[in-house]
Amino acid sequence: MELYQLRQFAAVAKYENMTRAAESLNVAQPAVSKTIRNLESELGAELFERTGKGLRRTEQGDILLRYARTILEAERDARGEIEESLHRTGGLCICALSCAERISEILAGFSAEYGNLDLRISSTPEGSDLLLDSAVSRDEVPAGAVLLYDEEMCVAVPEGHRYADRESVSLTELADDPFIALSNSQSFRQISEHIFRSAGMEMHAAIECDSAALQIRLLSCGMGVALVASGEWRQVCEDAGVRLLHIKDAQCRRYIYVQTLGRFRTQSIRAFTAYLERYFAQMA
């Protein structure tokens, strides 16, 4: 059993889909399928079963995933500790599933304080040192993670919208409006779906886009309305002719946190976490 096999298995277990797992690893999908078949042959057990919606781990798959996570974390920790023991600054890989629009400012500020550190941004937690993400409540923040900030989720509407002169609105009042959703953030989608469910509705995105910049342009053109994080959007909305409205009929906050993904916390990880705490403290 090789490390690359465990990495690919863990990705398939996460996404429950061969194609999405392969894309997250930048590996061809047939290669991932072959890896899973080889593991199943080596272990003499099926690790996944097919369902109508994709793949689901078997009992044996759950067992392997528990050990795979431990092994992959240990491998990452060993590399980090050896790198630090050699007195090198080392690099830092950050998975930013939330705060995508803030991350460039955060990295620039951190680099200005700490010098030229090898910083990398990843779209997946696998192989990353830190996870910057958000949850729908304090209780959903993972154990051991550092809660950085919580902010209100609002509805953004164009200035010409029928409710643009109001301070607040119900999601049910916007049921017939096309919603513009971000397609590149799984955690933001989960928070959006949670907000809709708390209002007794299902979220149906009429338009999906892969960047907040495009979302802002679509809003400015009157193409629909959107759920947005108030802290990230207030200045943007003033400049783009978009209004933020409070939501009356749903639980509407998100909780931003940073989580160390390995057991060994390098100096770079400690410094970046401390910088994030200072950065978000200034926004309170």
UniProtKB/TrEMBL annotation:
Family, per entry: Belongs to the LysR transcriptional regulatory family.
GO cellular component: protein-DNA complex
Alphabetic keyword roster: DNA-binding, Transcription, Transcription regulation
PROSITE patterns for the chain: HTH_LYSR
An example molecular function term from Gene Ontology annotations: DNA-binding transcription factor activity
Domain HTH lysR-type span(s) in chain numbering: 1-58
Keyword Transcription regulation among record annotations: yes
Listed Pfam families: HTH_1, LysR_substrate
Protein name as catalogued: LysR family transcriptional regulator
InterPro entries listed in its UniProt record: LysR_HTH_N, LysR_subst-bd, WH-like_DNA-bd_sf, WH_DNA-bd_sf
Native species: Agathobaculum butyriciproducens
